[in-house]
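lol ok so funny story. i was supposed to be doing the assay writeup but got distracted and ended up predicting the structure for this chain instead. priorities right. anyway since i did it might as well share w the group, maybe its usefull for someone
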Amino acid sequence: MMIRIKDLRLRTTIGIYEWEREQEQDVVINAGIVFDGRAAADSDEIADTVDYKSITKALIAHVEGSSCNLLEKLATRLLEIVLADPKVESAWIEVDKPGALRFADSVSVRVDGERA
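and the output, tada:
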C-alpha cells in the first residue's frame, strides 16, 4: 500500500542568494510512503499501520526549524525522517519551491529511497 501526503505547505529558509536567506520562503512537500498494509486492513487499528500524522509532524518540525541552501539537501533530510519509521518499506519526497524561476510555477526536487 501507499500513503500519500499531498501539498504540505510550509515556510523555511532556503536558497543560495543573500536575498533568499533574509526571509522565509514557501515550500510544498509531497510524499509517497510504501508499507505493508495488510494487517491494518484486517485489524482497522492504528498500531498496524504507518502513523502519517506523526510523520507529518516530524516533517513540519524539520522544515520549519531548518535552513538549507539547496532543495536537494532538504528533500534528502525529509526522506531520512520518513524512512526512520520501521513500518516504511520505501518512500519518495518531492519538495517544490514556488516562484523559484520566472515564468514557472515552481522548481522541485524528488528523492526516492528504501529501507536498507
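Helices lie at 18-21, 38-43, 52-65, 71-83. The chain has a mean pLDDT of 96.
back to the writeup now i swear
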